[in-house]
Design brief:
globular; 230 residues; single chain; NAD(P)-binding protein; NAD(P)-bd_dom_sf; alpha/beta; SDR_fam; Rossmann fold; 7-stranded parallel beta sheet
Length: 230
Amino acid sequence: MSLVALIVGAGANVGKGVTQQLKAKGYTVVVGSRSATKIEGASHAVKLDVTKPETIKTAFAEVEKIAGPPNVVIFNPAGFTAPPGDAASVPLEAFSRDVAFGTTGLYTAVQEAVAAFRKAPAQSPKAFIYTGNILPFVPATKPIFLTLGVAKVAAAYQIELFSNSFKDENFRFYFASQISRNGGPVSITQLSGHAHGVAFWNLIERKEQGEWDLRFYEDGSEGPHEPVHL
C-alpha cells in the first residue's frame, strides 16, 4: 500500500520534525513551499504559495503524478505582521496576505485533500492536520497577534466544521497546537519539531475522528482542553 504525505509549508523546525517522523513510518513525504526546498527526509519538493490558491491546486496535481494521491496532508505555514502603530495600523495588503493562511489557502488545500483522499488506497488513514496555536481559545487582547489570530480563528472554525462533515468517509481533520505545561502558549523558540512529529503521528494513527482540537506538550503527549489566558 502506497502511503503519501504532503506537508504544506515545510520549514526547518516543525516541517522537518514531521517529515522525519513520517519517513520513519514508511511514508513518501513531499514538501511544498514557495522555494520548493527539499528538506531532510523528504522524497520530493513542489512549489506553492498558500496566498495563491491556483499554486496549491497545481502542487496537489504534481504530488499525485510523482508519488500518488496524498492520504495525509499537513498544513503548516502561517503569516504574521506586527502592527506598526495601533491595532488598526496593519497595511491592508499585509492583513489580506496573512489571513489567507487560515481562509482561502486552507480552504483550497482542504478541497484538494478531500479529492485526494477519495483516490488514495481505501485501507490508508486519511488525515488533514493544521498546525495551530491557542489564539482561537483565548480573549483577543493583544494587538500584535491581529493577523495571526484572525487566520487561526478562521482555520479553527473550518477544521471543526470539516471534522464534523466528513465522518461518514472517515476523513479526519485536526487543529493541533503545542502548549506549555500550564496549558498556555509557547514561544517560537520553544516550538519542538520532534513534538509535532510525535503528536501528528498519534493523530494519523487514530481510527476515528475524536476531538478536533488537539493540544500537546513538548514531548508530543496530549494535553488538556482547559481555558487559558495570555
